[in-house]
Design a protein that fits this description.
19 strands; about 375 residues; alpha/beta; 13 helices; single chain
């Protein structure tokens, strides 16, 4: 019997993405796998059941989708959804395992082999499976569009009969994937862009996009880990960094903050003093809001106005661009499925660096060391 891949509808508030799209479904069915899509699962991403059927999928009930051999999903499953998974089945999707280890523990108790897309190692062979980076690119793009819409000024330099309009000044804090996409988008809109990151290694990338790399006069040894992520700074260094950023933030029309450290609260980069230095009408888009925010005044999921400064704390920007976000996410899942599954079944391989890095539960146990440590704390 062919491996059954289930695609349940997303139930988290505001989530409009779907884990697989028809193009990916077609490739999987052509390889001899069976894809079962829950009725209406693609509605939020403007994909009809008929399009899924034309690609070779079966349209099934919610229970049937969750009872598949391999289930793919976007958001971490709820307790009720975990209960629908069969013991011995495989789950692949975002799990937020370092912030929500209890979800991983419940998957282990259910006897599910679970792979967290956030934990795919950043190695060359795994680039096509890097869902975190794919979604970060969407968030960085969308953040700039929101800022441009809120800012009561033009982004580009304009020469008009009424005189010349100076370009907006955009500061991007954190030059990871989201930050680099934000830089590129703000530049395409004509803004004057500068960016800051504690990792000197990203300086050339920032400059290649036409932005100015902001260098602060303090030393940060070993600013990034072996995976390329920024390391958390010591508390005193973090305070010093935030203080040095105040005048730069104060001169900005828009600040896009993206700095996060996996498994920890987001570092504070924008103090109340920095917000006070900004002009009324200016905008902060805090992409670190889900992990506490880079701005001390951020309220996750809300827009705060403080002394005329608009501080936006979005929680899930990729869901606001569900068509392309779903396509990009589905391609990363396709790469993961093709790496470890055949029409006959899923093949766990702990000798493989990608599988070992992403796998969080197996044979009824939590196998990821960091998640185990969090559960034991």
């Amino acid at each position: 019997m062919a491996l059954q891949i289930g695609v349940p509808a997303e139930t988290a508030a505001g989530e409009r993405r779907v884990a697989l799209v028809p193009d990916v479904v077609k490739r999987l069915t052509q390889q001899g796998m069976s894809v079962r899509v829950e009725k209406g699962a693609g509605t939020g991403a403007f994909i009809t059941d008929a399009e899924f059927e034309a690609a070779g999928a079966q349209i099934v009930t919610r229970e049937e989708a969750w009872a598949s051999d391999l289930v793919v999903h976007v958001q971490p499953p709820s307790e009720a959804e975990i209960a629908l998974l069969r013991s011995g089945s495989v789950y692949i999707g975002f799990l937020n395992p370092l912030d929500r280890p209890e979800v991983v523990e419940k998957l282990a108790r259910q006897g599910v082999t679970a792979l967290a897309m956030e934990l795919v190692p950043r190695i060359s062979r795994a680039q096509k499976m890097d869902a975190l980076s794919a979604m970060a690119a969407v968030a960085g793009y969308k953040a700039v569009l929101i800022a441009a819409n809120l800012l009561p000024k033009f982004f580009p330099l304009l020469t008009t009969a009424a005189g010349t309009v100076r370009p907006a000044s955009v500061l991007v804090l954190g030059a990871g994937v989201a930050g680099l996409q934000a830089i590129a988008t703000a530049r395409r809109l004509g803004a004057r862009v500068s960016a800051y990151d504690i990792r000197d290694a990203v300086k050339e990338e920032v400059q290649s996009l036409g932005a100015t790399f902001l260098e602060l006069p303090f030393e940060v040894p070993d600013a990034q880990d072996v995976s390329g992520y920024a390391k958390a700074l010591a508390e005193e260094k973090q305070r010093q960094q935030a203080q040095l950023l105040v005048p730069h933030i104060g001169r900005s029309d828009v600040v896009i903050s993206t700095a996060q450290v996996p498994g920890r609260r987001a570092p504070v980069l924008i103090t109340e003093e920095a917000v006070a230095a900004m002009q009324p009408g200016t905008v902060i888009i805090d992409l670190a809001a889900p992990s506490g925010g880079n701005c001390v005044l951020t309220k996750p999921g809300e827009t705060v106005v403080h002394n005329g400064v608009q501080i936006v704390g979005p929680l899930n920007l990729p869901a606001e661009m569900p068509v392309h976000a779903s396509q990009m996410y589905a391609r990363t899942l396709l790469a993961m499925i093709q790496e470890f599954a055949t029409p006959e079944g899923f093949k766990p391989d702990f000798e493989d660096e990608i599988f070992k890095g992403a796998c969080v539960t197996y044979n009824g146990e939590v196998v990821n060391e960091r998640v185990r440590a969090l559960l034991a704390a």
